[in-house]
Design a protein that fits this description.
The protein contains 14 helices and 22 strands. It is α/β, with parallel strands linked by helices and about 450 residues long. The strands form four sheets. Strands 3, 13, 14, 15, 18, 19, 20, 21 and 22 form a nine-stranded mixed β-sheet that branches. It has an eight-stranded parallel barrel with strand order 4-5-6-7-8-10-11-12, surrounded by six helices. Helix 7 runs parallel beside helix 8 and helix 9 packs parallel to helix 10. The longest helix has 19 residues. InterPro entries: Ala_racemase/Decarboxylase_C, DAP_deCOOHase_LysA, De-COase2_C, De-COase2_CS, De-COase2_N, De-COase2_pyr-phos_BS, Orn/DAP/Arg_de-COase, PLP-binding_barrel. Belongs to the Orn/Lys/Arg decarboxylase class-II family. LysA subfamily. Specifically catalyzes the decarboxylation of meso-diaminopimelate (meso-DAP) to L-lysine.
């Protein structure tokens, strides 16, 4: 992201902020569409909607041919509302061999009661992350006279991720069936008349090719152990996102080649074709989104200068939770970038002259800590894992300017909260040069309406 960032998806950032207010999430539809198309070599692109689950985003990825997973009764309801529909073929092995792919799959480590009821009501396929899930699902299916397939999410005993909080493999992770419990899970399934038709493995965020090779080998070993009932393998998600400017984009072709080799080896040994799924969330959504926020104060605390904005970790919690890095650019209020400087009209009520940001200030930015308005010391957007605050180079902001927090489309709005009784922000989708409100901002009245 450039130090001065005046446009998003071809539209003026200041105009977006004027039209929709701040803080506000904005998404670039064209980028989401392109990311789905990037993954076309895989048989199935199954969107992990927990990354960004607005109905308009779900409809967009459905239009591009991506299917969806759900991790709760609420996400099942979202998928249905977005037009995804279950089918009797979802449980037909012959149909799956012939190329049918279930539109919605429920995948989790547990069933809460509402989720189990919703799965059975809509007869959805299930990806089980614990042995108890098999028993709970199997008992209900048996009572209904249903003989269904299930897939198993496997924890291979190792993981990967930029933070332990996004590492989904190994003993430190709650996720998946432990790799030595596979035989027990197969027996449990058979006890209820279920069959294991797929293997899913996801070890964490930002998996590199070295780790990916280990994951593929581990998945192949598990699938061989289960046997010829396996019809589908899932590569999970975890495709890396280049949050920092010097980070490379993921090599999708190499990613596919690694997994396709596993699929082909399995198909040869099992004696039938095997479907290959990938389950991206962050990859589809992260780079498409930005959080626009207004500068409300600039102040010095000893040797450190702080830029305080109207967004906080109630809007974007990743930096506070993971020490996650997001690029940040400055959008000067009403900027005119012609000539050798960026000029803006007076933006403070007390100011009487236009403000000029010379190119030298852009080329040689100063260091600022960017923080939010919440009554919490951890409400800082520029921090490392462990809560260590760090400064970020920026041209000097002024009250009324906007900051653009980039690569915020994944695990941004979906992890937002009402902490400090802050209303949730609006969401806006930009498509074909037109911004469209896809979720109105909450009001204070919205916050209070369910309390008694």
């Amino acid at each position: 992201m450039s130090p001065i960032t005046t446009h998003f998806a071809g539209l003026s950032i200041t105009q977006l902020a004027e039209q929709f207010g701040t803080p506000v999430y904005v998404y670039d539809a064209a980028m989401i569409r392109q990311r789905v198309r990037d993954l076309a070599p895989f048989d199935v692109v199954r969107y992990a909607q927990k990354a960004c689950s607005n109905l308009s985003i779900l409809r967009l990825v459905r239009e591009e041919g991506a299917l969806v997973d759900a991790v709760s009764a609420g996400e099942i309801a979202r998928a249905l509302a977005a037009g995804y529909a279950p089918s009797p073929q979802d449980h037909d092995d012959d149909a799956i061999r012939a190329g049918h792919h279930p539109a919605i799959v429920y995948t989790a480590d547990v069933f809460d009661r509402a989720s189990l009821d919703a799965v059975l009501e809509h007869d959805l396929p299930v990806n089980c992350g614990s042995p108890d899930m098999i028993d709970q699902y199997g008992e209900r299916c048996h009572a209904l006279g249903r003989r269904r397939g299930v897939t198993l999410r496997i924890n291979p005993g190792f993981g990967h991720g930029h933070s332990q909080k996004v590492n989904t493999g190994g003993e430190g992770s709650k996720h998946g069936v432990w790799h030595t419990d596979v035989a027990d899970c197969v027996r449990r399934a058979e006890r209820w008349g279920l069959r294991v038709t797929g293997i899913h493995m996801h070890i964490g965020s930002g998996t590199d090719m070295t780790h990916l090779g280990k994951v593929g080998a581990a998945l192949e070993q598990v699938a061989q152990q289960v046997g010829t009932s396996v019809l589908t393998i899932s590569a999970g998600g975890g495709l890396s996102t280049p949050y920092r400017g010097d980070e490379p984009s993921v090599d999708v072709a190499a990613y596919y080649e690694t997994w396709n080799a596993v699929r082909e080896q399995l198909a040869a040994s099992l004696g039938h074709a095997v479907n290959l799924e990938i389950e991206p969330g962050r990859y589809l959504a992260a780079e498409s989104g930005a959080l626009l926020t207004e500068v409300r104060a600039v102040k010095r605390q000893g040797s450190v200068e702080y830029v305080l904005v109207d967004a906080g970790f109630n809007n974007l919690v990743r930096p506070a939770m993971y020490g996650a890095y997001h690029p940040i650019g400055l959008a000067p209020a009403n900027a005119d970038s012609s000539g050798d400087a960026i000029k803006t009209p007076a933006i403070n009520p007390e100011a009487s002259r236009e403000r000029v940001i010379p190119q030298s200030a852009i080329r040689n930015p100063q260091s600022f800590v960017v923080a939010g308005p919440l009554c919490e010391s951890g409400d800082v957007f520029t921090q490392k894992d462990g809560g260590f605050v760090e400064a970020r180079p920026l041209p000097r902001p002024a009250v009324g300017d906007l900051l653009v927090i980039g690569a915020a489309g994944a695990y941004g709005y979906t992890m937002a909260s009402n902490y400090n009784s802050k209303p949730l922000s609006a969401e806006v989708l930009v498509e074909n040069g037109e911004p469209r409100l896809i979720r109105r901002a909450q009001t204070v009245e919205d916050l209070l309406q369910h309390e008694i």
